[in-house]
Amino acid sequence: MNIMISYPNIDPIAFSIGPISVHWYGIMYLVGFAGAYLCGMYRAKRSNGVWTPDMVSDAIFYGALGVILGGRIGYILFYQFPAFVDNPLILVRIWEGGMSFHGGLLGVIAAMFFFARRYNKHLVDVTDFLAPFVPIGLGAGRLGNFIGGELWGKPTDVSWAMIFPNDPLQLARHPSQLYQFALEGVVLFCILWFFSQRPKPRYCVSGMFLLFYGIFRILVEFVREPDIQIGYLAFGWLTQGQLLSLPMVLIGAGLIVVGFKRQVFPKSGNATS
């Protein structure tokens, strides 16, 4: 007989100030931005002036706007498009929740384009510098999903299965949020941080991020419950998350090949510039 692990059932509201409730998920966003800022400052100090504290602060600010705007717009377009067509106002109903990583990624790339133009930097030099810090926010976000008891996995009989209180069927499920925390957060951070410790050719760090995030997301989607309003797109297993992640794997692998083939290095290497 399998013994399940009890879901900790943490209150998703961390604290309240009068009528205002602060959710753990929102706090996790702050943790992600703060972690990226601290890591960016650490690397900037070793950049021989190529990156300054003001640049790091601005990059995090631009990135935060890209994450929030792109994440919300992407969620509506990728996961709620029919509902959006019926009622475009759902785009601004942010209190109802709903963010998309892939939309956030596109938002950040757009934001970094404007940042790069402002500081006269190559766009990929910017993304190579920032890519190792992104998993901090990804991991924190998945912890927020877990605390909120959302985006759970498929039913299973593994010994670490959990019953989530918001699940109407009350089935033992994979804690897929924790799988994503481990892979997209901890493992991806370690890969990118140590890969970028020494100078790498332009495109390679960004390529590694896209490649491994895409692989990890595709793998976890096999044990994660698909979005109820979309379900499976094909073959009884292809999900929207997998469909959106496959181009990341291909583009990431292509960037790595191009980077090592061209051997063009930023001024001070990825670890310091």
TrEMBL record:
Predominant cellular place of this UniProt entry's protein = membrane
User: Which residues are listed as membrane-spanning?
Assistant: 20-39, 59-79, 99-117, 129-148, 178-196, 203-223, 243-260
Q: Which family does it belong to?
A: Belongs to the Lgt family.
What are the binding positions for a 1,2-diacyl-sn-glycero-3-phospho-(1'-sn-glycerol) in this chain?
R142
What are the protein's UniProt keywords? Cell membrane, Membrane, Transferase, Transmembrane, Transmembrane helix
Question: What is the E.C. number?
Answer: 2.5.1.145
Q: Give compartment(s).
A: Cell membrane
Q: Does the keyword NADP apply?
A: no
What is the gene name? lgt
| MF GO annotations | transferase activity
EC category name: transferase
Described by its record, this protein's role is as follows: Catalyzes the transfer of the diacylglyceryl group from phosphatidylglycerol to the sulfhydryl group of the N-terminal cysteine of a prolipoprotein, the first step in the formation of mature lipoproteins.
Please give the name of this protein.
Phosphatidylglycerol--prolipoprotein diacylglyceryl transferase
The pathway where this protein functions is:
Protein modification; lipoprotein biosynthesis (diacylglyceryl transfer)
HAMAP family per the record? Lgt
| InterPro entries per record | Lgt
Highest rank taxon of the organism: Bacteria
Q: Name one Pfam family in it.
A: LGT
Membrane topology type: Multi-pass membrane protein
